[in-house]
């Protein structure tokens, strides 16, 4: 990773179309964090009105580049030009003033403020709240982004929150709008709607810098793509003339291998049995689980599909022991009733758990990887001796996870928050797999990951099952489940459909169940004892 | 008799209201300044000194404000400039303020000043019952009431208030939108310091016309607690401050009447009553809390 920047490259390498001054140009932009080079002599040129894609794996340096272009961080080296003139923003306000808008991945919103107040905060200057509201209504209308200005942000869905960010950016009438993975957090329908908005913006003549993992979207929307790998520009191309596979190859530097099934391993006795599990969640907004029954046998992967919010998080909490169940026998691990066991007691039975939220649930963001490894491995011997933590053993564990799962990170033992999403997820899964669990329960294993990282995670799950472990995967991604699972079921309104062999079902059948049709005793839900 | 009691309640409540108002603004900007007690006592010492040297209540009040702001500036330099832990810095500020005030006060132990003049509007102030209560207070009472009326208006209706709340809710987002979070928070801390200094100065200027080390007697801590129990809402803050003032005066009169309860218990009553009432109020609130989401967290932008 510590390659010195390539000084032999001529500074004019940023490919601007001949005869046209780029709207925004970065030349030789370099950003180092200690010995880690996040951006290494990056050249990028965005022409007026161009829809420009920025592609790369997690951790390739896309977000760093966007922060530099927005003046949020200053590059160590290199220069920027706005319409051909030197442009050195000392803060985000300077970038806004030129007409650069940003819709960030982690929303820059104020939860306790209303929609109108959030939008007003994006407008630096003395515009009165009255004319502001009128313009807000007008822009909402023009781009089909409905918003209720009086509602507080914390009441809104993820899709609505993103709409606020987009409208707020559009209120500044930006010449160049940057969107950092805008569709990653949206449901398919919301993503579809956003996509139409973006096409309208492009038709208006605004330049877009579009960051996405979804290569089909990029091919549809963008006419130029800059591809980053490990902090460097590896290619600038026209995505319309490329295939998704060729773009993915450029991003990863190799073909993305589809996970290979491990043939011919035996299916054993159930390691996890759930019978008649009913549970009222701690969270008043949660979903009540209703008589869930399933089993996961040694050597197989069971997939649980469903639209988010149908009880998956509650099921995960019940299985992992974050919420104890009344009837201890409704969850058994290796034949032992475990419903009243704590998380640590379940781990001692050979279970491992990977929750959905990587930062804040699976790991403590501000703690080093070694300490985060300790959090799930303290119960078994090896890293704790007579109550004292064995630092050397922990660092060794981090090194082993790093080597086995190709975790790329700045330094040997950085804080969890400094890893990119894909690399952190590889670390979390690796941390559990190296404990050689007999049972692994994982919630949304590849959420928000690029193709390369997702494939690596899926392969790891397949290999774990092939080694004789039982694996339960909860995922919203049907393709993922059909790719790796032996048997699947669907969650809907806190209920679980019977398990069926993945080979004997189809996307369509599962999709219908996810939408709520084809369930037995429809309407008899309330008859189920809670 | 009743009029005298009501008047003393107002005087007892005003320093709490002043200090808590300032702390409320500071906290809404995301900074937890536990040094209110220290800023109050230094305000009391300097306020008394100013009034004693010049004979002017006005100069005394200004000296109190300046002293509170000076201590707040030190706090801002530590917590905003150097991103030192706010809790530790606030506690240190209280200890520093207490020590400094004792040092400054050495020169005028035992001295007395004339109490702050009270408003006198011919005709109105002479009205029975309400006259003195409404039109006959000292000027700082009106200042405190003006503040508590202005704060919700500024916070809810003006751009400055909106930006201040934004800095307290999500400092990183405010920075990303181009606001100078450090500047906003520094101004809020200075405002809080000025208010605390004025609250401290009120004690020797209007409450008891002399200076004694430790004369704030934990009022700064009460002001801090009021802000939290009032859920950062100015109207509840005022209710809490006056409730505390009322119970602390009433229990004195009750003791004088010879109620058969231990005096220690009676002295604890204002604290008990205020906490209980405000906890009850905050339990029945509807909707989201206005607790500043970024309260107590240092913000250092990426470089």
TrEMBL record, chain B:
Its main location: membrane. The chain crosses the membrane at residues 29-52, 59-81, 87-109, 140-156, 187-205, 211-232, 239-259, 265-281. InterPro entries: ABC_transp_permease (IPR001851). It is a multi-pass membrane protein. It comes from the Bacteria. The keyword Membrane applies. Keywords: Cell membrane, Membrane, Transmembrane, Transmembrane helix. One of its GO terms (molecular function) is transmembrane transporter activity. The keyword Cell membrane applies. GO terms for cellular component: plasma membrane. It is found in: Cell membrane. PANTHER family: ABC TRANSPORTER PERMEASE PROTEIN (PTHR43370:SF2), SUGAR ABC TRANSPORTER INTEGRAL MEMBRANE PROTEIN-RELATED (PTHR43370). This is ABC transporter permease. It comes from Rhodopseudomonas palustris.
